[in-house]
Each structure stands twice: as C-alpha cells, then as structure tokens.
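Comment thread on ticket #2218

A.B. wrote:
> Attaching the input chain for the structure job we discussed in standup.
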Amino acid sequence: MKTKSLSLFAIIFLFGFMFNIKAENILPNGVPEFWSSNIVHNGEIIFIGPNAKLRNLDLSGIVLTNANLTGADLSNSDLSDADISKATLYNAKLVRCNLSNANLFFTDLRRADLTKANLNNADLTYTSWSFADLTRADLSDTDLSYSTLSYAKFYKTDLRNAIFNRANMDNTDLEDAITGEK
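C.D. wrote:
> Ran it. Output below, let me know if you need it in another format.
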C-alpha cells in the first residue's frame, strides 16, 4: 500500500485552515506584496500574484477577477470557463493554455505570450492585446469587439467567425491568419 506524505506546506496550510490562520502569518517572509492568498480552488490554496508560477494546473472555472498576474507563467494550464475579467496579465506566459469559454472582459494581455493557446468561444471584449504573441492560437468564435490589437502577432492564428466590431487594429498584420468559414 502506497502512502502519501504531506509536505510541510500542506501541514501548515491544514493547520492554518483548521484554526483560521492566514498564510501571511505562517509563511517565513509572508506573502509577497500584491499577492492574494485567499484563492482556494479544488481544495488547494493557490497564491496569485505577479510572476506567479502556475504551470500545468487545472484551474478550470476559477475566479480571478481583478487579479494582478503581471509576468505570471500559466503555460499548459486549464483555465477553461474561468472568470479572468479585469485582470492584469501584462507580459504573462500563457503558452498552450486552455482559455476556452473564459471571460477575459477588459483584461490586460499586452505583451503576453499566447502561442498555441485555445481561446475558442471566449469573451475578449475590451481586452488589450498590444504586442501580444498569438502565434497558432485558436481565437475562433470569439468576440474581440472594442479590443486593442495594435502590433499583435497573428501568425497562423485561427480567427474564423471572430468578431472585431470597433476593435483597434493599428499596425496589426493578419496576412497569415486563418480566416473564413469553419
């Protein structure tokens, strides 16, 4: 019979949860400035903040409204059906991230790397994408209305059935993007 040993962090977390002790009071240096320790998803505490390393996680359905994830690495993570509205993901790494059906309304994705990300059927209205890399990403069936897409990279990006109503596309090259009917 295999037994799992609890990490020191897990023991501290369980103890803190049972006695309503905040992570800020039990981590040696506290929680870094601008971080939130009150996100519990699928029974696990997740620290959210600038430069967070959140790779390869199942975060489907998570609520990250107004989160500051500047420079965070969410590569290969599942954020399908997540609410990431009004969040800051400036210079974030979202390579091969699943953001299908996610709410990214008014989200800052400037300079973000979304190479091969799946954003199918996501709400991308009023989103800032300036200088973002969307190489080979799937943005089919998305609404990009009122978004800023200036200087964004759309190399072989799937834009079929995407809506660009009043989007700012100054200096955006869609020549190699996939458009038309599905």
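A.B. wrote:
> Thanks. Noting for the ticket: The CA atoms of residues 36 and 167 lie 32 Å apart.
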